[in-house]
């Protein structure tokens, strides 16, 4: 909840299908299952015998595709789609993906989940030699690299381009004769392959989108892999030499849907184990456990079971969206907060409660939650966070833009506890996180990226190196050996 | 979930505030907390120094009030509002409440939650003597009765009218100089009084709407009571002699929000106790308990704790609305169902699961849930329903229009179990329901209405008597002593 | 143009068809041809084998019926429709007609063009005996009178009601088994009967709406007549004894479309004759004649032909609507005016121009027109108005609410000329108007109502008597013998 | 009217202002005056101290800018805007101009009125070397050429690019420090410079847009000229050597607003002279002259004055737009046509009428007009067209895509007369057109392009040469000496 309310946003979700007469509609379904990964724009491009048709718009999927005719027009046996979280200031339809490019030698569509660390540099170089961009995003860079490549075949051009871009990316591409997925050498973002009963292949950011179209899971795309799907089936190639799995741990903690599996690990179960571990690491005497809905209910169940305390519904989330323009006065603003979350007086009154939340970003939401519970009569409020403290920005696709906004970058756990007004506060340890996710990869942190917790980024930071160094403390600089 | 998906709808929610300069905005907030009681229309009437202003429309609150100016125009220190579930065929704005009447001697607004059992008769009599109606609802009947009363004062006219209408009703009325609430002699619908810190009084269908505006709960309006609020405070009068509490048990089972208290009983806690009781009444050997989100999570927690089984997230509800017009083909229709609910393969695969749901209406949703879980690999699916079988229609404000649509009216529990494809099925007993709600009123069924379970209606059925008798079996007729 | 820009509005247009399978669609077409009579709301009620279906909304016809499904749902072989000009403050959908009433003994729809002079009195009396209203308009009064009548048959009840209401009215009613039109005893508003090739009968405010559905004109409904159309054909009855034709002269001057005929007189031709007469009454030496588009082009053509001067396009009207919210600064406001009307420099520069306009209400638009032409280089601007000075309000259905807003009520022609900055100004005489319309009825003013020019109202003023007497000068009172 | 109804569309209108604090709002006003040049999309880009902000959308200006906030966000002292007619199949927002490009070295906006004859070739060459396009239009080509130029300064790069593109173009460009207009070497499209009282400079497709913002006309941009406007004022340069004026004669005949002046010639006056010339060239005995509203009213006035016949309003155009989705049955389709145009029975019945129209494209509209008039009782209908027969496509910016759609390309005047059902038909001669426009340029056809009438294109046809040669007759090929 804190992650959600305090602006920790995923950049995107992608979905594609090859080999089904209802491809665009299936893509709509798939994107619907991925809507939690981006709510500010959506688009679909279909492949109609080699000719691509596209439609995209701002807002939720149901707002963009608000008329059956939009899907109807996207004819063809293959389609790719994208849901986007738009960073502020870029909220124009020009940035909504998939991007559709039309060339004399064919149409081309491109969708991207992630963030490049050398996007700015590449864009500059390309502009200096005549490159023209229509969007703010660095997604177009890949298209320019492909078109300028001197390699002979398209796949060779693509591989060259994929080796030129750095950072976090899951790309989905549609050409007249094939659909392609590609993952960066660290595999920061998940991407899974499935197959429908009619034989159609499906690629999706999460397995929950395979389920919604009743596709059978085949395998996860691995770091540095490229998958090419056409009418003959699929082939997977490794395009990069140095790969090392470092999947975004926030996928397990907050972003991914609980029904998704990532590299074989069910997200709900991982969260429940994290909650149980948190109970072991940071027990506290209390009457009940309360999860902040909806994202922290799994961890709360784990904490409750491990601690032997009852798991109660002490906070209720309003399932209906309130208009933000109903601008309250200062007095009413406080009441506006209550429109999203309510404390259940009948449950918490006079009780010592342990509140489980997924994370703390700025701390303002946690403070409100504590306040709501205390106003509803809770005797004690103990906050337990099912992830380590967020201290550093992410440069691979999560919108944690500035260190200065992260409360744990500047305050100790005790100071945060005071700020939010809780009776006690504890976070899960990094070891606890790694072990309860349990990927068991032969890689640092068991194959997880935990850079936002400890600054240990698995790649060079490229465009961001300078601003990162300026934002951290001298102690950090010394500690982070990679900068030695 | 089954109740939600299978068309068991509440008719309305009402809210009013007297004595706050931001009355219309507070009413918007209050209705937001009551949105679950009606999603097909909303309206607000404000009282601007005796002159009433109204705005209403079709759809969710956020669709009706989609522009700040609409609230801005509703000036005044008092307001009442209404969210409505529109029965099919009547989906025009004419039926959206509050109704606003303008007379030479003042304006008048009226909102209604419930259903009259003698509405048709009264309407007919009134029409025969020149009465004119603008809506299909029987809400207007009260206004006609008031205006035709020969009593001297408005309150006397109102009392006469309230004694003339029969059935289930919570009325909210706004006049130039007062705001009025009134409850039927059985108190089928909840209605609670609260007070804000500035002294303003608030009336609402549920206490969760008091909480959202930070109003302190004062008391529940009791059956047969009339509350008049004006600038001097409030007065409560009993307008009816024969009252007997029979609050709708579906409020506890499904309709009300878990954070609401009804006659002092917290809804979440009552549901949790019902789940625990269900575990005692109908235990089964299994690996885990799964609640159907969101309405059955409380009962599932109760069942899990009582049975000692882990409470798992085996079903996930998609929080985003999908466009219904995205009409799938027959093959895709099955997938369309998955857009609302997903089974979590990583949790249920190979496991024996107990699924807790709030109720079964037609049975089609339960069948799909069982199917989803089995497809996701569940070894056994045991369905447990946290309420008794629904067998009879409600005539007091819930939209269970026809006995023929209720699967339990025609099939035995064993037959239903076969229909939904579960490995076992059990319902909560009526005694179990009454005891776990625990109102402890000196009234039949502890003050609950359980007529939809056993046909024992607490009032005569008036307009509906004939159709009810035609719809039931001879055995029923014999059993139901009231028809003796 | 001045009439249009300065707020001289018709109240409504009505249309009905009986006996065609596409009745609602034809009604849409008919209302489209009548859109100039009201742009702020529209509605259609169809008769589907005795059951009435309705749809209505705020705005232009194309905004209200913005989706084919709305028309599709209005099934049936008969329909009536209405376009409305909503007076300020009453802009809610509740006031949009036709009103649809549902009674135990059948549905009923009612539409009204005009204004009652005893509407307030009747409403008060009806309210005092229990009558309830949903709209601000006095249209509902007729329905109440019908329903309360003690007469035996519906037609007798209707006739009684029609004799009870006074003022200006053309009513259109739809019942399960017939469609009815009725005109007040003075026939202030036009209403014409036509027949389609398939035999269907059509009633419309103007003959241009008969033309759009290719209906052959049969006859005008006469003052005090009632027409009943059913499957057997039509019958016309006289329901009132004292009738005297006094058709609104503004219909000829401004409201009606030039292609309509009223009582056999073509509106364009009448305007052209008025322009010619104006040339005789008020000639002036000049280089060209300019009509203010679009309403004054006919009169300008008449003036030009009679004077022998060329008829030039010296003013151009922008056919596209500009958003009024594009709020200009004070400097830009002047430019905003130019968005509706432009002077043609290439035509008027250095020329002496005669500008023909239909009327002057407040005078502000005329002032701007003179200014536009002078800025474009016109050497002289002579304003000629093709109607007499507007001095008194209309109580029969035109929105001239207050004498105080009419410049000619307070200023002499010479003073108005100075106010608008013209080099000369002249109006058509009342005699000129009467003779050029040329109805040749044996009635005062040849069958025209000219009350807004001379205060000689053809009926008592009822509700408005007092405010009229207070608004006029002592000289007026003496002159107007009816008040003697 | 025929031009309008039969799909003869202008491609665009452009407008720009430099040096006014309300630049975007003024651009809205200017585009409003140019709305007749394109109704399917609109956009504005403002220059806020060197940073460009843009907004664009599909539909009319009032639909795109439907909220004041959109204009409010376009801050800055300069702005350019564009209204677009979108050719079928390309109706996506991607093609709406101005295009906004963001480079590391600054933002850039570009708008284009016209059509390139070598756009396809250039696009192909640019794509082959890595160029990427986001729209279907060939407007982007100019941007690519500029960015790839090896010239040193931006103006030199621009001049090189302008000399590389061929065909018809009026470009408007916005950079951080200047606003630029450029016209092709033939000046197919008009572009005029004006100045506001505060000193701000304005460039617009037509002078009517200067008038709407009260800008004083300074001069027309001449063929092959480039105008650069910045804070120091404006400079005009000739960028091309071989220029020859060939302004599109359809601007005078149909496209431009009657209040605009093109190269000093008032459009209304030119049309009126054309009508008078037509009366001399093709007189006929009749009772009256009727102009098809609105575009042919000037020519009708000229014909009437020259022939001494009265100019009557025999056809009325409905000023309100009807929804096209109100799909009539075959029977009703005929009536649907009447929703745009009505014949005035009261005027034409029994009369011999001369109908003046601007042009005939497919002939279907003319046929309907004749039919409407005959049904309304006209005794004879003589059609007179105020332009020569349309026989060839335009490649410079008018949407006459195919010869096969032009009735005069395949039928003689006599055959067309029979097709439309008129009693006689005559067109204006090319000489008559040239002389009545009267530009008196020392250039073929007096400086007009008349290629759609006689195939004499003033430039090579580039991309279109092959398809043109295939579409014409052998006689044409022989006649057209340029192909010799």
Automatic annotation (TrEMBL), chains A, B, C, D:
Enzyme class: transferase
Keyword Glycosyltransferase: yes
Domain Glutamine amidotransferase type-2: 12-232
Swiss-Prot/TrEMBL catalytic activity: 5-phospho-beta-D-ribosylamine + L-glutamate + diphosphate = 5-phospho-alpha-D-ribose 1-diphosphate + L-glutamine + H2O
GO molecular function, one term: magnesium ion binding
Gene Ontology biological process terms in this record: 'de novo' IMP biosynthetic process; purine nucleobase biosynthetic process
InterPro entries linked to this entry: GATase_2_dom (IPR017932), Ntn_hydrolases_N (IPR029055), PRTase-like (IPR029057), PRTase_dom (IPR000836), PurF (IPR005854), PurF_N (IPR035584)
Keywords: Glutamine amidotransferase, Glycosyltransferase, Magnesium, Metal-binding, Purine biosynthesis, Transferase
PROSITE patterns (alphabetical): GATASE_TYPE_2
Family per record: In the C-terminal section; belongs to the purine/pyrimidine phosphoribosyltransferase family.
Stored NCBIfam families: purF (TIGR01134)
Function field: Catalyzes the formation of phosphoribosylamine from phosphoribosylpyrophosphate (PRPP) and glutamine.
UniProt name for this protein: Amidophosphoribosyltransferase
